[in-house]
Design brief:
By secondary structure, the chain is of the alpha+beta class. About 30% of the residues lie in helices and about 30% in strands. It starts with a strand and ends with a helix. The structure holds N-(5'-phosphopyridoxyl)-D-alanine.
Length: about 280
């Protein structure tokens, strides 16, 4: 199979020919941010929300990049150049502070590295139907989880531990308060009210989370952006995690909690909305 086409620093080139210097601060320090955007049948899902979040992440890192606005057109071009016009997949975009001699403080004149790639990815239809099991663990991340940083070690370690236990995702808590997953947000229906952690510094404000909240309002569900505890989960009647790659994924178990759920009717209604929005 021939090498896919990617975008690197203003040029569309073969992935096999896309090279960055070993002194890139993304490589040396994880000094950068990223986005993952879904496309369905070649069409980007909620691209503007992703661009807005990317611009915010960049601004929090004091990493100015005017060309971030080009992400939508670059993504559309890559989808077409890689013949993904009828495919489901993801766009991965990463921006780092660029190459410079290794020194912690910002370099004066480094040019940011801007990389975009498209990959085919099928929807997880079987799991969306059956639901998934999660593994609960402590949230050991920093206090700026709102920035979509490429520095993901705690998320990777949590995700690996979950994979080793055959769990779909790790669900994280800080001193008993559930924050989010290692790569998703979480919602639980407790006492008839849907709850999810507020979009503060302890979670990433997921694009899917925002779309779900909009849709919950339209459907007339009671919802509070209010943290819930691990104990509260034992009272929950429905639970789901959501993300760009997971959509609205029903949760049927959270080890080691002694409780089993079934995909609930509210969760199914949200899934139906996604299904119709995807087309
Ligand atoms: N992860 N929280 C975390 C920690 C995440 O990494 C993600 C997304 C989300 C959900 O965000 P969104 O709905 O915008 O995808 C929440 C992506 C998919 C990833 O890292 O691959």
């Amino acid at each position: 199979m021939s090498s896919p086409i990617v975008f690197l620093n203003g040029r569309f080139i073969l992935e096999s020919e896309a090279l960055i210097p070993v002194t890139d601060r993304g490589f040396l320090f994880a000094d950068g941010v990223y986005e993952v955007i879904r496309f369905y049948k070649g069409k980007l899902f909620e691209p503007e929300k992703h661009v807005q979040r990317l611009a915010r992440s960049l601004s929090e890192l004091e990493l100015p990049l005017d060309s971030v606005e080009k992400l939508v057109s670059v993504s559309e071009s890559l989808i077409s150049q890689n013949a993904f016009d009828r495919a489901d997949g993801i766009v991965y975009a990463q921006i780092t502070r660029g190459a410079a001699p290794r020194k912690h403080a910002f370099p004066v004149d480094a040019a940011p590295t801007f990389f975009v790639q498209t990959t085919e990815m099928l929807r997880p239809l079987q799991k969306l139907s059956d639901g998934v099991s999660l593994l609960l663990m402590e949230d050991i991340r920093w206090q700026r989880c709102d920035i979509k940083s490429i520095s993901l070690l705690p998320n990777i370690l949590a995700s690996q531990k979950a994979a080793e236990r055959n769990a779909y995702e790790a669900i994280l808590h800080r001193e008993g308060w559930v924050t989010e997953g290692s790569r998703s947000n979480i919602f639980a229906k407790i006492g008839g009210i849907w709850r999810t952690h507020p979009a503060d510094h302890f979670i990433l404000n997921g694009v899917t989370r925002m779309v779900v909240l909009e849709q919950m309002a339209k459907l007339g569900f009671s919802v509070q952006e209010y943290a819930f505890s691990v104990d509260d989960l034992l009272q929950a009647s429905e639970v789901f995690v959501c993300s760009t790659t997971s959509e609205v994924m029903p949760v049927i178990e959270i080890a080691p909690l002694q409780k089993i759920w079934k995909p609930g009717s509210d969760t199914r209604k949200l899934q139906e909305f996604f299904h119709s929005a995807i087309g």
